[in-house]
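Researcher: I'm preparing a figure for a lab meeting and need a structural model of a single chain. I don't have an experimental structure, so a prediction will have to do for now. The sequence is pasted below. Please return the structure as tokens so I can convert it later.
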Amino acid sequence: MRAFKLVLEYDGSKYSGWQTQVNARTVQGELQRAADALFGEATDVQGSGRTDAGVHAIGQVAHVKVQSLKRDLAPGRIERELNDRLPSSIAVLSCEEAPPRFHARHDAVSRAYFYQISTRKSALSKRYVWWVKESLDIVKMQECAALIAGRHNFVCFRAVDPSKPPESTTVVVDSAEVDTDQDKVIFRIEASHFLWKMVRRLTGVLVKVGLGEVDHEQFRGLLAGRKNPQLDVAAWTAPASGLFLEHVKY
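Model: Understood. Here is the structure written out token by token.
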């Protein structure tokens, strides 16, 4: 058994997410086809985690495992040949040989995402931002984002994933912050794992904080797992376009 660790970037706009699906185009499916063709056998391709339809990545990590190399394929050549076989919206940034037991998902310690909110209309970056037309109170957003780090019950911010068994809604967040970069407001968050749609729902509520429609205490209550019938968190889920998987730590 030979294992290779890949770092990938991709534009998720035209994909039904990372995970392979029947009758749907996915990033994992494209990588699987390219790897199978390159190595001449059915390979094991797994990612550090699933990204939803329309979500992008600049630092997704995946492993490719093969039973044996039928020809001389050094990591640099694997990187080049995979890129030759992959569509332009998916790029292998690096490839290195890994221990045979390396697993991109199980061995990951944390994952970091960022979300881009545009404060103006952009002709060139529509697929990569959420344009919020109204003025946002950045200071209030930053104050609430600072509350996210730590151990919380994120039941108010998760969507039920019908493809997975029930899971704990408690997540330990390593860091979370809101910052600005010219005409963008950027929400960054890092944690060991995330619940389905958790980051997009946190983003949506933070925007409501910036608009003055959710106050500090209401946000704190949601973080404590107290559902508020006056706050429709699900309806405020931020669109997938602005979300990026930034990096994965091992």
